[in-house]
What we know:
- The chain is of the alpha/beta class and 221 residues long.
- The protein contains eight helices and seven strands; from the N terminus they run βααβαααβααβββαβ.
- The protein has two domains: 146 residues, Rossmann fold, CATH 3.40.50; 55 residues, no CATH class.
- The protein is elongated.
- It starts with a strand and ends with a strand.
Amino acid sequence: MNLIFIDTxxxxxxxxxxxxxxxxxLDDLIVVKSNIFVTEQxxxxxxxxxxxxxxxSISNYSQNIKIKKVNLPEHIAGNNLEKIEEWNKKRNKIDxxxxxxxxxxxxxxxxxxxxxxxxxxxxxxxxxxxxxxISVASSEEKKLARIRKxxxxxxxxxxxxxGDQITWExxxxxxxxxxxxxxxxxDFDFYTKYKKSCYLNPFLFxxxxxxxxxxxxxxxx
Length: 221
């Protein structure tokens, strides 16, 4: 059996990505859901951050759809006052139409924000289909995760809460039952990149080696 481990940061990308290819990946994951390793910790992190990720992704749109209001003054008209007045009328119509579009845009975003907040958006509903077999950490796994964090071993950042460490300890306990792990992430806690190649952290590699597990590493931009 092969196991697919997808880091939380990848799941959150589904809430901020405009890429059709990335959206298609979500549908592909549903097909292989039985091979996906997901923990209670990963789901909690998604729930804590998905609304914030979506809101952050739409901030540029909120700014870019606005157009600056311009009204040409009479003193630049010379002998063409009528043309200036006509130009201003046309421009005012554009400004009014833009206001309507902004209001429509706000309604769309508010509806989506509302849906995400109650997990009724399209991404959350598809993730619900994927998250069928959720692993819950044991007391021993949590203990080992705390030790991992205190020592400073990867994954996980010093300033972050205990999360990645718990998931990794759970993953290590799954290894005896599998042949190969696919690690999908864009978190540098797991790897180092040089040119177009990515290299798994040596400490994590050694842990997999000690468990006699093969792996494939996938970095998603």
